[in-house]
């Protein structure tokens, strides 16, 4: 982009998250000094003392902040730290970014010639469904999965219905071992996202699960030095009361909303609790960190079909949900 970059960011030290918002109507180019878009948030939260939005003065829970899908702490979420083992996840899935449903359960692959192999996999989504299913039906937690247990910052996102409405999204910028991290945030995002009621059994058939692993953190000196649809961004700013606030959007948010750079920044500022007029001079004071995400999405239908196929050979210790129950 030809813009000067500052020292590289450290994802493990960051703690604010965001992955989806209810649709907001924004002008294509908000004027300098305007109140900025997204001022009411449409039910989206952002933060506590150190993360944007959410419950005013909310404190991070023990072990690091748990962040809702809109750029802030999951208000009051004590987390769902589980100590039992995990399921024998669902066999290998392809490595890639949000592939179409028809290819989700194909053979593992890479991002193409010259691209490194992705870490995220369909197996991780399958594991999240196993964890949620076992919890909702009162079965023993599934056993440990076969995919890597390397540490990554991560988010688990739930959407529901044909229109894929956001149903829960919480994650962390602190790198966590994937087995325990996905187990924890599967349940935290499904049950503890303060924007939504806890998930129920009846909703399972309409769910979509996405796992996002965050990588390539870079601090940049220019708040415009990031690409819509490619980078997630985390901003840090001082609000009108002199308090430091942060907020973040995952890479897909701005593109899904149809926002440009300014609209995205202004929406984050509003969700971070900034209430004063937003000027171009103020935008220049923002500290911005950009990052990338590896994302995989799976529907409950795909999960169910895969579990049916692998049930006996994987030795999963709980019964499959009956198809006629969900018809």
Would you mind describing this structure in some detail?
This protein is an alpha+beta fold and 327 residues long. The protein has helices spanning 122-137, 178-191, 251-257, 261-271, 280-283, 300-314; strands spanning 67-68, 72-73, 151-160, 165-177, 207-220, 232-238, 244-249, 287-299. The protein has six helices and eight strands; from the N terminus they run ββαββαβββαααβα. It has an eight-stranded antiparallel β-sheet. Strand 3 and strand 4 (165-177) form a beta hairpin. The relative contact order is 0.22. The model is unreliable at 1-17, 19-64, 68-114, 312-317 and 322-327 (pLDDT under 50).
Give a quick set of tags describing it.
alpha+beta, 327 residues, eight-stranded antiparallel β-sheet, disordered N terminus, 6 helices, 20% strand, 20% helix, single chain, disordered C terminus
